[in-house]
Amino acid sequence: MDSQSLIFQKFRCLKCERRLNKPLELKCNHFICRDCLETVLRNHRTNTQCPACSRPLGDYQIENYTYLSPDHYISRLLSTFTDVNECHTCKEFTTVKPCSECSKDQCHSCSAKHEETHLQIEEQPNENLELSNEELEILEPIKSYLSKKEFEDFIQTARNHVDRAILKQDKTMVYIPRSGSTVSVEKTPIWSEPEIYDWSKHERFSLDDIINSKPERVRQLLRLDFNPRPYQIRMARPGLAGKNSIICLQTGAGKTFIAAIVAKFLHIRSLQNVISPSASSTSRFKAVFLVPIKALVTQQCAAFRQVFIDQPDFILKPIDNQVGERFKNLYQQFDIFFFTVQKFANFLEAKHADLTKFDLVIIDECHHCYDNHPINSMMRQYHRLKSSGYTVPRIIALTASVGTNKKNAFDHLVHICANLDCLEICAIETGLEEAELRNSTNTPLSDTILSVPKEISDPIVKALKDDVMKAIASRLGYDISTMDNQKLENFLAIEHDNACKKNDRDAVIGCGYLKKFHRFLIYYDDLPLDECIKWLIEGLAEFTASNPTQFDKFCRIKSEEFLKRVAIEISNSMEVKAKLKKLVEMIINLHTVNCRGLVLVRTKFHAVSLETFLNKNSDLKKRQISAGHLTGQGSAEELSLPGNQQSKVLDEFRKGTKQLLVATGE
DNA sequence: TACGTAGCCCCACCGCGACT
DNA sequence: AGTCGCGGTGGGGCTACGTA
């Protein structure tokens, strides 16, 4: 790095790693962008620290910053070097010029190459692609990796994939036509290859023996105890051939087995190489399987053990305690590792593990590889290593939902491909494979949307809105009569904040009451009255101050009036809500021996109270249907379920002591 | 328990184009 | 010129999840 770069290094923001924008000097003499400091303060709230030296920043207030005065040397220097910034292509901090086409900063050495990419795009007369400027911008980073032909193929594949994924009628399937696919390898159908490599006569087998063999043969060669499906073999091809690939397949279609087949092949071959004295490679094959959540570690590990059934000792069993330093020993002993991605990222960070020492990284649920997700931070390290000339592991990425989680599917897919360094997208082909998949997996028989008539004005809602809430609001000078749910929610949140800042006790209390009532109305929209009332009474208990003001008393009287009113309504034996009736009806209709049901709801409270409601229902009791609830561990509420209770509920559900599961998570 | 990562839903807002 | 509908965007508020 030349001296210029070293100086500019100093102008980097500690947080965003770009050139300082509105620089602020912290007490520890480190510099940071104003916006970045605000982010730090907002996100860390209590434990704010300088990103460089970890000195506490607790006494900083967003409102109190003074910008560095213009005569400060950093500001002065920055204003002199307006043409200094990070080069968009090589990421070096140096003198740059904005590109005349896309106005992205380019350094002197990159600008020519960069301009070429625009020329190439202009040359493409292919009107089928119809890329917008935004799309071209997205594609820019990956363009430099690819030849023109590869780039076109890639776009075509991405386009087809997205179109198919969006237009598909059957939501359980994702298609990708072979013609436009970048899976450009062998065109020979798997079945038509007559010659089969005979494992019994030779102790070695090659790549071709796997990719061109019938399932039975692959089973024999890889010593599996099941027949892989033909599409699984086809989708394993890029991986077997040493290419990074994204395997896009619906849940339950055997993504994990595809990865396992690749891993097993490479593993067997590496063992042969280790044994053979003439072999160039002397190290054993190492792979790591990364999953986003803990529960998947066990699940995927079990799937791998099924594939490595003859050599399970190479697979590290899931370990839930701290590994840390011990990882180095484990690395020697085992060949296949399973981790949550966060854990693995931590190992890398702490230098317990070294990415370059792995031959294969399998990334489950790879659609998360985006923005600041831990998977992506690991991939950033991968890219850094790759660009510095290190040998990096190959990637096999698994997902069921690429291109669907973000607002712009195309953008998402391309980002995922770029982030994962994958140019191959493997998905089910229309025709034979599609039919096969349909036969071998459980697909929904039907989906139905049931409509429930809107409830006609409920006396309880009316009483709360028109009487109680209105009265409290008008005392505070709010007009909430015209606000709908969302607006009111936002309004109350803001007013509550303001009141806290101003230390306006009455307004804080009032907003507190209104928020509770509003929440109650939202819950009551879906849930049985008794559960909601129970929740409300518990919630209102927090407003019993020791020395109540006039306004406190007013609010309390109002809410007591309301609760009395509700008690009367309940004693008049109100009808069960239409929605809930329909739910019970549906459960009874669909119920058969040994079947299970899953009810998905929005909040934890929904889950818990719906469970109670269902378990109380006499019609369900008669049929011996009982429900359990499953929520996340979340933060410190009594409604959260700790991990062990989660598995307990799931166990009951599997065993069949509970046939219904009410769970959060949409 | 606190924190930081993420997604989803809803609404307000904006710009655009078609229509009156 | 004004109105309407549409689609995209951004913010607020909620959630789940893993880690320390």
Say what the CATH topology of the largest domain is: Rossmann fold
Largest sheet: 6 strands, parallel
How would you write the strand order of the largest sheet?
8-7-9-10-6-11
Broad shape: globular
**Cα distance spanning the termini:** 50 Å
Keywords: Metal-binding, Zinc, Zinc-finger
GO cellular component, one term: cytoplasm
Organism: Rotaria magnacalcarata
Domain Helicase ATP-binding: 236-420
Topology, element by element:
Elements lengths: L2 H8 L12 E3 L5 E3 H11 L28 H8 L3 E3 L6 E6 L6 E3 H16 L9 H11 L4 H20 L39 H5 L3 H7 L8 H11 L4 E4 L6 H21 L11 E5 L2 H14 L19 H7 L2 E5 H9 L10 E4 L10 H14 L6 E6 L9 H12 L3 E4 L4 H9 L18 H17 L9 H18 L2 H22 L2 H12 L9 H22 L6 H13 L6 E5 L2 H13 L1 H5 L4 E4 L12 H13 L4 E5 L2
Parallel strand pairs: 6-10, 6-11, 7-8, 7-9, 9-10, 12-14, 13-14
Antiparallel strand pairs: 1-2, 3-4, 4-5
The structure holds a DNA duplex (20 and 20 nucleotides).
Can you give a write-up of this model?
The protein is an alpha/beta fold and 666 residues long. The chain folds into 4 domains: 3-82, Herpes Virus-1 (2-Layer Sandwich); 145-440, Rossmann fold (3-Layer(aba) Sandwich); 459-571, phosphoenolpyruvate carboxylase, domain 3; 580-664, 3-Layer(aba) Sandwich (Rossmann fold). It is 48% helix and 9% strand. The protein is built from 25 helices and 14 strands. Helix 5 runs parallel beside helix 15 (409-420), helix 18 (485-502) packs antiparallel against helix 19 and helix 19 (505-526) runs antiparallel to helix 20. The structure holds a DNA duplex (20 and 20 nucleotides).
